[in-house]
Amino acid sequence: MKLSRLLIAKSLLTLTCAATLALSVQPAQAAQRLLDMASVQGVRENQLIGYGLVVGLDGSGDQTTQTPFTVQSVVSMLKQMGINMPAGTNMQLKNVAAVMVTTSLPAFAQPGQTLDITVSSMGNAKSLRGGTLLMTPLKGADGQIYGMAQGNVVVGGAGAAANGSKAQINHLGVGRISAGATVERAVPTMLGQDGSIFLELKESSFSNASRVVEAVNARFGPGTASAQDGRVIRVQAPQANDSRVAFLGALESINVTPAQVPAKVIMNARTGSVVMNQAVTLDTCAVSHGNLSVVINTQPVISQPAPFSGGQTVVAQQSQIEINKDPGKVILLKNSASLADVVKALNSIGATPQDLLAILQAMKASGSLRAELEII
């Protein structure tokens, strides 16, 4: 009997230790491509914008009495074409709308390539459906013209029916033109001209910067990469253009295991939605908010081995969450100190987004919530 009790005690101790280790081990981060973690400095898009006119509308254009800039634009355009309007002419332009044209110029774009553009009404036009955008220069932040736009405006989902009703699905004041702009000027990009390129991490992290340096040096040899700070990494690149392109292609495909991300809680104050990027736990605290109260207790639980078993005394922390809402609603969560459980319990008893926001802010201020709290 003694031998049986010893075996049972040892088995229980082994299971307890195994469970403790399993809970303490954090899940390993999956390896990511360097392309998904960083970008090459200087390789970026450039925003373009232009002002133009959409014509050919079916009476749904700007009301010229309230949008005088539409009339001025038409008069200026006609004057450039050699047509002078008599002074005091009252123009009723129901088929014309003033619009803003926007797009992005990709890196390494060359003259002759086409771009998709977005056309947005800036007046009081009812609809741009069926209109034609007249030739519109697209300028960058430096005021230079980098593209020309023109074409038929397509308003997606216009007038579509939903479940047998005539509900409008899309905004009629915004449309798109596929391949509606032509690149007229390229943006020069200095890439590795001095024998080195710079990688910029999408999120600043000293741990990730050092891991990227280790991965690049392991792939291409020591001294190839060096970290400038927590975001920028300098990489030695070949001088020849074709060799540099092949080098960057191989660089982007390197797998890097990122460091564990910091705990973060994001809450939408309007809808009450809460998103956590990993398991976020709570320390001991007590929060009272109106008729709601949240109490989190953590107390040690001692587990002693059987006599003469040769085991060791194990001290574990056991948490308990008690949530009260007057009148008479009580939720008790044992062996839990997870924020996810608290949020779920608060939603089940009808807590509003404002209640949840106030409770999370109080927990953060008291130090119970060991995570970054972001309110959107």
From TrEMBL:
<keyword id="KW-0969">Cilium</keyword>
<comment type="similarity">
    <text>Belongs to the FlgI family.</text>
</comment>
<comment type="subunit">
    <text>The basal body constitutes a major portion of the flagellar organelle and consists of four rings (L,P,S, and M) mounted on a central rod.</text>
</comment>
<protein>
    <recommendedName>
        <fullName>Flagellar P-ring protein</fullName>
    </recommendedName>
</protein>
<dbReference type="GO" id="GO:0009428">
    <property type="term" value="C:bacterial-type flagellum basal body, distal rod, P ring"/>
</dbReference>
<comment type="function">
    <text>Assembles around the rod to form the L-ring and probably protects the motor/basal body from shearing forces during rotation.</text>
</comment>
<dbReference type="GO" id="GO:0030288">
    <property type="term" value="C:outer membrane-bounded periplasmic space"/>
</dbReference>
<keyword id="KW-0975">Bacterial flagellum</keyword>
<dbReference type="Pfam" id="PF02119">
    <property type="entry name" value="FlgI"/>
</dbReference>
<keyword id="KW-0732">Signal</keyword>
<feature type="signal peptide">
    <location>
        <begin position="1"/>
        <end position="30"/>
    </location>
</feature>
<dbReference type="InterPro" id="IPR001782">
    <property type="entry name" value="Flag_FlgI"/>
</dbReference>
<dbReference type="GO" id="GO:0071973">
    <property type="term" value="P:bacterial-type flagellum-dependent cell motility"/>
</dbReference>
<dbReference type="GO" id="GO:0005198">
    <property type="term" value="F:structural molecule activity"/>
</dbReference>
<keyword id="KW-0282">Flagellum</keyword>
<keyword id="KW-0966">Cell projection</keyword>
